Amino acid sequence: LISRERGRYSSLHGALAGGMIALPHEPVAAPLDDAEPDELTCPICYTMFRDPVIPTDEPRVYERDALLAFWRRRPLASFFGGESLASARMEPALHVREQVAAWLAAHPGHTPEGWTSREPGPTSSPAELDRLASEIAHLAAVRRAAEAAEAFAADEDRDPGGAGGEALLLLRAQATAVRLRGATGHPARAAFTGRYVRRDDLPLLAGRFAFAKQGDPDKMLWFARNGFWHAGRAADLGRQTGFLIVADSAGAPEHIVGEWQVAGPRGSGFVPAPGLRCEPDEAEPDEG
User: Based on the number of CB atoms within 10 Å of its own CB, is 247 exposed (0-12), middle (13-18) or buried (19 or more)?
Assistant: First the structure.
């Protein structure tokens, strides 16, 4: 038996040595021809450009909607840090869009990650970009006004006719009523949604106006120095606590774009409430 096994081993060894039997081997990885080039990918959203734009004050290319989402949260901030930009003016990056089209033509079976199809869609017109730039500039101005009003209130030697007074005028020009709407995921917290009216008779809190719920003044909406807007009880006005909160330093509540959080049952912490939003609501509600 041992002799027969040795014979089989010798025959197998000879066949392998002579190349008569091919052993299985690990497949060789295919070249990453479909890897999306970094230079054609937005540094904010990490997807290939569809509507690329270049801020006139910062020579970098961004996906338009990604840059706007960033600016609505941090108006005129530079995504890569440093000083704030002087304006939100943007120009279409048509040369980058052409490079994306050329890359797609060279990869006919590839749909970029995050795209619903291979079609990039229309590019923004200069007029549309100018309109969006004006929106961001307004958000930045209101936030600066809130910061100036907060500094003005803390200055014991303040000049009533100085920058603080100008800031207050801009803050007063914002919505006088807002509506907090959407699902809270917690029935008891739904009472804090609804229409809130600005209380011009109260001192500013961290440079922002406070709002009282229409028909239920025990519920209020305010900003605190921790960088959060809060909807909670009037007894807690100005404090860093509430039943609905959002980390957003917007100068006015209708400018909030951060995700709201809702306080759960006692001791259970906060949970996200992505359906909540705060909108301007200047019209008086129907009494019928």
Answer: middle
